[in-house]
Every structure is written in structure tokens, then in C-alpha cells.
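## tool: complex_structure
## caller: assistant
## args:
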Amino acid sequence: MPHYVVLGIETSCDETAAAVVRHADGRGEILASVTAAQIAEHAPYGGVVPEIAARAHVERINSVIAEAMAQAGVDFNDIDGFAATAGPGLIGGVLVGLATAKALALARQKPLLAVNHLEGHALTARLTDGVDFPYLALLISGGHTQLIQVEELGCYRIIGTTLDDAAGEVFDKVAKFFRLDFPGGPALERLAAGGNGNRFDLPRPMLGKPGADFSFSGLKTATIRLANRLLQEQEGEVLDASTASDLAASFQCAVIDCLAGRVAVAMEMLAPKGYNRFVLGGGVGANASVRERLDSVAQEWGFRLVAPPPSLCVDNGAMIAWAGAERLVRGWRDALDAPARARWSLEQGATA
Ligand code: KG4
Ligand code: ZN
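## result:
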């Protein structure tokens, strides 16, 4: 079986990332993966500012690619295909990465792979653990919360999604209330560590209702309202340390209950169809308590959880390079006029 080396570029949000991945005999190997975060640029605003992100991508993309190539010990002659996120995401950033990949593909006369960012997350467990199709995937990130029936490459059915906020988004919004550093998810996880998750009774929207859809905004509002009430009671600017930690832990427990409940519904749907593998992707998948709980849900339903390492759950170039490599191996490629898309459902097919 031929070997393919693919350069992958990810610029859909606030990470400028590039990676070189080798696909050989169905197995993946990350030769290099480089990420330049933009935390300092966005921190003053408490969230990602699209215009600032696009400009930062332009400034960093060339050096990030050069660094990835140098670390991998390859030059452009060694690259068999150029992959970039073509959506969904912040359109200014997506345009920067996709245009770069197009220019490289054109200049080197090699295939372009216009990758759906969500497909990158959904396929990462195949890169890290060689998971076979079909499987159930849960993508939990700042922009998306989706349960996906992954039948085959390019064949995805969304069996549950969020009706309002994404899981990572509520972590970020609640963390902002706690005045934690941006991005809020990891900081909130640290605050919750050691806290009593049973101290405060918070809602678990959708839990026990039919279907596998999620909803988080009611939980977010209830958490912030409770925090405000506690603040008034304490007559202070900030909550005392143990109350803050208990509230963060109670919030995290509620999110995890919601995730676990909907994952159980999806497993109940798919187990009779012979599904027994469960894959995690997206930044919230880096959360240790989330991983632990989902592992026990998987065991209950006879599924094996494959959770890529946290560095490959958050946005990265390797997942895009790998998704591109999987497509390249099958002889798929994209035209040089492949569009950048702000919105792009996996069900629309992963090729333009
Ligand atoms: O997949 P990702 O890097 O970017 C998107 O595609 O959105 O996910 C970023 C999201 C952010 O909302 C971030 O706060 C959240 O994932 N996140 C976490 C953790 N690490 C990242 N949420 C909870 N616990 C974490 N440890
Ligand atoms: Zn992502």
C-alpha cells in the first residue's frame, strides 16, 4: 500500500495550526504538529474576536507551516497533498488557511483536500487508535455539540445536536462569570477540582426526554443566577474559594450528567445495529471528569471508549491532515475553487 504524507492546516477559530501526518498501510503517524494559540490577543475581550483571529492567522500561518515542516524533517517535495479546514468556522480564518493550502497545491501541482473541521474531530480516533468504522462519535467543542453515527468515511448521520449553546460555550460563559482566564473550559475544570459537585442542585435540561438532542442554556442561566444570589448573600465582589469551587463542580457535574444521558440514548439506538465503539472529539473531550464518566457509560452499554489525548481533542492541524490523508488514499480530492464555508453540516457530505 502506498504511503502518503499530508500537510494539514487548521485556522477555523483561534488556533493557527499545521501538522504533517503520514498515512501508511492504513495507519497514521504524526510527524509534526504545531499550534500557535492567540490567547493573549482575545483575552481582553473574554472571547474570540473574528477580525482579530483572521489577522493573527495571516501573521502566523507561514511560520507555523515552516515550523511543522522543519520538525517533521520534510520539504515540499515530500508532501503528497495539502489539506485545510474549509469550514465550518469563522470565515475570515477559514479563508486564510484554505487559500494557503490552495496556493501550495497549485504551486506544487499536488491535490487539495478541503476538509470539514467536524470530520477532522470525528476521525481523530482513527489516527490515534486505528478505530474501525462504524462507530458513535461525540463532538463537544466551543461551537458544536453533536452525536454522530459514523458509518463510513464521508457517511455521517447526526443523531443529536444542541438546541442552543454548545457544551464548550457554556463552560466558557460560566467561566467568564467566575472571571477565569479565557478560554474558560480548562480553567473551570481546575476550579471544580476538589469541589463538592453535589452541593448545588442545578437543572439537567433534556435529561430523560426522548431523543438525543442537548440543551445547555437553561443550565447556564441557572448557574449564573445562583452565583449572583450567592454573591449577594456574601456581600462580596467574588465568591469565597470553597463556594466558587463547589459551584463550578456542581455545574460541571450537571453538564456531564446531560452528556452521559444523551450518550446513553445514542448507544441504546445503535447497539442493536452492531455498534460497539465510541469516540470522543472536541475541546470539552479534554476534560478528565467528562472522559471518566463517558468511559463508564460506554462500559455499561458494551461500548469501548476511544478518547484521543487532550492535545488532539482540541483544535489541531493533525486532525485535518489525517482527514485529508484518509480522503487522498481513496483517490478523493477537491477542486481549487472549493469554497470556504462558515456553516457546513457533516450530513451535507464532506466534499464541496
Ligand atoms: O475543539 P475546540 O478546541 O475548538 C472548537 O472547535 O470549538 O474546543 C474549544 C472548547 C472551548 O469552549 C474550551 O473552553 C473547551 O473546548 N475546553 C474545555 C476543556 N478544554 C477545552 N472544556 C472543559 N474542560 C476542559 N478541560
Ligand atoms: Zn474544533
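## assistant note: Strands lie at 3-10, 15-24, 27-37, 81-87, 112-116, 135-140, 145-152, 155-161, 277-281, 304-306. The radius of gyration is 20 Å. Handing back to user.
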